[in-house]
Amino acid sequence: MRSIGIGWLVVGLWGCAPAPQGEIELRTAAVRRQAPSFTAAVLDTLPAGLVVARLKEAGSWLYVCYRGVRGWITLDEATPPDFLPGQPTEFSLLLNSTDSVAIEVNPDGQGFRYLKLGVLSPWLAPDSLLYAGFYEGLPGEELGLIIVNFVPSLALVVKRIQLDPETMDMREEQLPLGPEIERRENVLLLTDEEGPFRRAEFVRWGDKRGLLVQLPSGEYALLWRRML
Q1: Are residues 121 and 180 in the same domain?
Q2: pLDDT in tens, 136-177
Q3: Which domain holds residue 201?
Q4: Do residues 104 and 23 both lie within one domain?
Q5: Quick one: 110 and 159 in the same domain?
Q6: Are residues 27 and 132 in the same domain?
Q7: Can you tell me the distance from the alpha carbon of 76 to that of 96, in angstroms, rounded to the nearest whole number?
Q8: 70 CA to centre of own chain
Q9: Stretch among 34-43, 58-67, 80-89 having the lowest mean pLDDT
Q10: What's the sign of the alpha-carbon dihedral 107, 30, 45, 117?
Q11: Which residue, 139, 193, 187, is CA-closest to 162?
């Protein structure tokens, strides 16, 4: 993290003055919590590059403020706060898999770039609330958006976005999901055979987090997590 000029106060630090220890720019995404503990409630996720007011420290934790909202982030880069290292569980889609999944659109805009599932790693969060958020599919895929919510209990909203090739009109359809969902660590199991997917697993690839989905056809889709 590095100190920056006071000009940023006008945009991002409104409502946070005075800042006793100045301002800093986040080098990596940081999970902001209500207290300096991994078990504390999650307020939001601050993206890399954001400028925040630095208020005080407590061990490896920093009390910061952005747009009037105060919370704690960790400075321990050796143990990132949003996942724990680990091996795929028995329910994992990554276990002994040789299948591939599209991860991004090719630079020329034609087709997708694919990655073997074995290259992805399980995202095992110490707090299930870290999984909550918006997960967006790649352009052209039927499974456009999944919203994950763990408050007060697990709930999913799945939307399929389709483009009419003749009229170029965008059609958005919300797919019903019943209560037949189980969570096994970082894996979501859907027991409804008529559901829009079979299993979904929270995964990571480098600094990116996503939701790997096994479709009823047996194929896979990867929805990237939208940073707040």
Answers
A1: yes
A2: 888 877 788 888 888 777 888 888 877 666 777 777 888 877
A3: 100-225
A4: no
A5: yes
A6: no
A7: 32
A8: 21
A9: 80-89
A10: positive
A11: 139
> Which domain CATH number covers 12?
2.30.30.40
Supply 11's token pair.
Answer: 């945009």
- Domains held by the chain: number: 2
Full DSSP string of 126-181: SSGGGG-EEEEPPTT-SEEEEEEE-SSS-EEEEEEEEE-TTT--EEEEEEP--S-E
Report the distance separating Cα 108 and Cα 222, nearest Å. Answer: 20
What tokens were used for 172?
């958005």
Q: Does the residue 106 lie in any domain?
A: yes
d(CA 185, CA 100): 23
Q: How many residues does the chain have?
A: 228
**Preceding peptide of 152 cis, ω within 30°:** yes
Residue 82 maps to a domain = no
Confidence of residue 220 (pLDDT cuts 50, 70, 90): very high
Give the Cα separation of 41 and 134 in Å (integer): 18
Over residues 169-214, the pLDDT tens digits come to 777 888 877 778 888 888 999 887 778 888 999 998 877 889 999 9
Looking at the domain assignment, is residue 95 inside a domain? Answer: no
Domain-located, residue 86: no
Q: Which of 97, 137, 135 has the alpha carbon at shortest distance from 116?
A: 97
Domain co-membership, 118 together with 210 = yes
